[in-house]
Amino acid sequence: MRKPVLIIMAAGMGSRYGGLKQIDAMDEQGHIIMDFSIFDAKKAGFEKVVFIIKKEDEEDFKEAIGNRIEKVIDVAYAYQDLHNLPDGYEVPDGRMKPWGTAHAVLSCKGMIDGPFAVINADDYYGADAFQKIYEYLSTHEDDEIYRYTMVGYRLINTLTENGHVARGICEVNEKGELIRVTERTQIVKRGDGGAYTEDDGVNWTTLPGDTIVSMNMWGFTAGFLKEIEDSFVAFLEESIKKNPLKCEYFLPTVVSSLLDKKKAGVAVLTSKDKWYGVTYKEDKPIVVDAIRRFKSEGLYPENLWGNE
Fold this sequence. Notes:
Structural class: alpha/beta
CATH architecture: Alpha-Beta Complex
CATH class: Alpha Beta
Helix content: 25-40%
CATH topology: Spore Coat Polysaccharide Biosynthesis Protein SpsA, Chain A
Number of strands: 13
CATH superfamily: Spore Coat Polysaccharide Biosynthesis Protein SpsA, Chain A
Largest sheet: 11 strands, mixed
């Protein structure tokens, strides 16, 4: 069985944040969130990381983290390109937005031939999550269906006071298996829970704080790349007509389709760690404080990679 590979999606520019948030330092040593994710992943057993970036960001990205990380773990790059579309399709006039997380992972086609985990570049997941997903990917293989996994978090632990966020709302059965995941792109914090809108705030639906949500920490077998590719045309056919400039092809969309077709099973792993992320500039101090606390508790050394 091949060792799991870590894929980090780092092609988004972070429009709400106002810059390339993936390479924004979070401590005095210049570490960025990805440093901590890779540190935790390496400790869990991962030996290779694939960064999904935009080709035009490559120099800045390598200077910020790539050149440093390649000294401690095997590194490869995949490039998400807006024009990477099936034959017969073109980018709609005026579209600048990337095609979404499933399209990002599709950029790794030809590079992955075994199990792999997928995470966001700008999210802090915690060591427990990496340990659990690596163990699952190392001990499970496809049988009559695909055997996938995801790490879920309680909604209340993933919200910000500074604006709306996108989350995959999960429905889980009594066996801890995912029934479906629905992407909600505008969720705000409301008391000890949240609420989402699908019509720009005209109507709101309440969500309990203990709702399990996906933070895009998924574990897949190699065949998932073919499933993404096969479903992409159907997505384009339906979505370009409805929303040509902003429609997105999400990982949860592909997963949900496979669940509906009984082609896959997804074990939901729950992490004991709190999620941290930087969606808005105002979120950064919270993450900085958390990392400072983690270091004081001995979870991380001052310099993650020794004498940097």
